[in-house]
Amino acid sequence: MTEFLLGLRLLFGAGRGNRIRFFLMAAGGSIGVCCLALVLTIPAILDAHDGRAAARQPVTSSKGPADGTLVLQRSDAYGSKPFTRVFVARGTRGTPSAPPGLSELPAPGEVFVSPRVHDLLHEAPAIKALLPGRERGMIRPAGLAHPDELYAYIGTTRAGIADEGRTLKGFGYTYAPFPAVEPSTLTDVRFALATLVLLPLGIFLSVCARLSAASRMRRLAALRLLGLSIKGTQRVNAAETVVAALLGAVLGLGEYWLLNQVMSRVGLPALRWYPGDGALSATTIAVCLIGCPALAWFVGRKSARDATANPLAVRRTAVPRPPSKWGGLLLVTGLGIVCGYCATGLTEHPASSVGLNAVLVVAGVVLTGFGLVLTLPLLSYVLASRIARSTQSLTLNLAMRRNEAEPGSTMRVVTGLVLLVYAASLAQGVLIQLEQVTRPSGPVQDYSLPLSGLTSQQQRELTDVSGIRTHAVMMDSWVDLNTEQPRAAFSSSVTALVATCAQLDRMARHSEGCVDGKVMRLVDPNSSLGSDLKPGTPFRFRFRYDGGEDKNLEVTLPSERIVYSGYSASAVGNAALLVPPSALPAEARPRDAQLVITSSSDPGRVRGVLDGIAAVAPIAEIDLVGLNIQGLEQISVVETLLALGMIMGLVIGVAAFVVSVTDRAVERRAQVTAVTLIGARARTMRAVQCAQVVLPLGLGLVLALVTGKLAESSYLITGGGTVRWDLPGVPLLALAAAGVVAAAAASSLPLVGRRVDPELIRRD
To answer: How many CB atoms lie within 10 A of CB 722?
Structure first.
């Protein structure tokens, strides 16, 4: 305890500069702890979302009392979001308790809505058609997965849902039917966040714990020479590092609390939560308040080892030993695993993420990242020594000799930015893998809307929605079983595509033989649809004129064919006939038909088209061909989480660079002053400062690009997707790395200073 108090006295009595460095350590640590708390709380936010969604799920039975409560649940797409409506017909006996968020079940004609639906009723009055009845109240937060959810309870009569309703037994499942993120996907997201945030975060906290390391080591060496024991000297060092880390942890938790209050109210794209969902748990508080000071103690103990073991060498600034080569063993081991899986991607049977492979791939990625960090000092030392021996430039000689003398400081300066580029490669791989699993395999996305639910004006406006490639009409033939003519003549039905040849080309992968203005047969060699139909077979289609009169159009199956190749998930695959729009009756609309809209399958474009459809026809029923609206929402959540991880990684990397470069410049003021006094110009010193940062940073970024792409490829290969080598992502990362180097060079120039203070080179 005496040594600990001595350390505190030395801390606050060693001058203003030392106190500033202490609070800088605490401020830097608070940023890291805030990011750590955010990463640790994300799973709790998702669990709270799924927990409330599971607690409100109706538990039903196909058999029940004749006068029991009936329930019918509908989930439709409203724009790019699911809109869930629960129809409830209260019974007279054994009525279950109300679901979470309601005090009672709605009576016939009563509607309880979420706050977002309440706002929509004023913004888009047409949505009222989906909610028959009067608004009785709003659902409380306990009954909603998130604040922006579209959810409603609608009271109705038993006769209204008797055909499809099921007997209600209660509410509450043990699992969410549509989780915010699927468990398998959540594993990939956690892995990506750990690489993006936690790996750079550990380095950043270590950097904060080693601020002003040189001056502190000289102070500790002086205490050791005065007779203080090794353990006592380490306790003195712990007084500053541990107290700064503890203060930073407390400040970081406070920063996270404020951030949670703001972000939960403002929200992130596709991710909203209540403030209580992001509340700090006991585990998170314990990890931050115990883990961060423990890390600071470990780093401080390791850094103080030389000062306690050989204090004379520290006081006389002896030449340090070369960096250890053991870090290279981790890098070689990790690259060996990663390159092995990359090699399997060149064979006919690539490795899969089954069994031991799943563990080895993660181990290879982590070992490569840690090995890259631990090898940077050695690589910087080798590079600096070779350049210093061979160069004739005074600037490069000064810069490289300093890096050769202090290779460990290189790691503190450039590691955060190097890890950011390495983690960005892995994030690209995770996004590619998730898109391959959750999005359609083809480049187009079809949307099918019943034509009977659209007015002529809405149909015209929907074809002008921004982002669509083309549009067409799919109409089904009609068979009148009560007709007096023989049934065999119209015994089969067929679906016709009403489109021009240009529209067909945009909806299909490939087509040939199409002639505009003619009814033609559609043939897909990869499908057996319509193979039993014979030329000359008649089909009848029903049309309704504006005056309400119904008429029929008879179309005969021709012998002329269009051979086309459709996408894996496309509405065109259901059609056996191509009917030109000019063949339809004027001022008439087909009765049994759907409007088909086609856009690209990019998730952002799909969300934009869905929102455009909702703005034109808010109550239209949308069928996303080959895509589930819940899956689209999950893609949005995952993209938001990864974007959040990238932002946090960027903040941590930049903060580590700024803090370490500033501290490095302050620590070297004496050396800069000495070199300036013997005749070095300010321009030369700025070039030296820039070279000291740019050369090791450039080396680290090149290694990060190479190793990151190899790690990403191993992840994609074992994932089993169609994309194994992310070559299009290389230019983007290379451009980002070049920008990092340019920013680092520009930010290092002002750190030399303009004023020369001879007092800085006084003897201690």
So the answer is: 8
What would the mean pLDDT of 379-388 be, rounded to a whole number?
Answer: 80
CA–chain centroid gap for 70, Å, is 40
What order of strands is seen across the sheet that includes strand 70-78?
Answer: 58-61, 166-171, 70-78, 81-89, 150-155, 110-113, 134-138
Let me know: does 117 contact 244? Beta carbons within 8 Å. no
Residue 19: in which H helix or E strand, if any? Answer: helix 16-55
Question: 634-677 pLDDT, tens per residue?
Answer: 777 777 777 777 777 777 777 777 776 666 666 666 666 667 66
Write out pLDDT tens, residues 546-592. Answer: 666 778 888 888 888 888 887 777 778 778 888 888 888 777 788 88
Mean pLDDT computed over 16-41: 77
pLDDT above 60 for 26: yes
Name 650's bridge partners.
Answer: none
Find the helix or strand (DSSP H, E) in which 73 lies: strand 70-78
In the beta sheet, which residues pair with residue 77? 82
SS3 label, residue 115: helix
Q: Are 487 and 473 in contact (CB under 8 A)?
A: no
**577 strand-pairing partners:** 496, 521
Q: Which of 475, 604, 462, 581 is nearest to 519 (CA)?
A: 581
d(CA 229, CA 232): 5
- Helix, coil or strand: residue 601: coil
Quote the distance between the C-alpha of residue 691 and its chain's center. Answer: 36
Q: Output the six-digit token pair for 426.
A: 């892995």
Handedness of CA 639, 641, 644, 645 (dihedral sign): negative
The radius of gyration of the chain's CA atoms, rounded to the nearest angstrom, is 34
Q: Which residue has the tokens 């031991």?
A: 356
CB 400 within 8 A of CB 380: no
What are the C-alpha distances in Å from 581 to residues 512, 578, 589?
A: 19, 10, 11
**Of 204-213, 298-307, 549-558, which has the strongest mean pLDDT?**
549-558
Q: How many beta carbons lie within 10 A of that of residue 512, not counting itself?
A: 10
Strand partners, 87: 72, 154
Distances (CA, A) of 13 to 5, 115, 763: 12, 57, 19
Mean per-residue pLDDT, 177-204: 72
- Amino acid found at 28: G
Instruction: Enter the DSSP assignment of 294.
Output: H
Q: How many CB atoms lie within 10 A of CB 487?
A: 11
Residue 544: closest CA among 448, 455, 447: 455
* Tokens coding 393: 């430039």
* Cβ proximity of 196 and 425 under 8 Å: no
Contact 278, 34 (CB under 8 A): no
Name the amino acid, one letter, at 754: R
Phi and psi at residue 199, to the nearest 5°? -65, -50
Which residues neighbour 732 within 8 Å (Cβ) at sequence distance 6 or greater?
A: none
Indicate the DSSP class of residue 576. Answer: -
Containing 468, the helix (H) or strand (E) segment is: strand 468-476
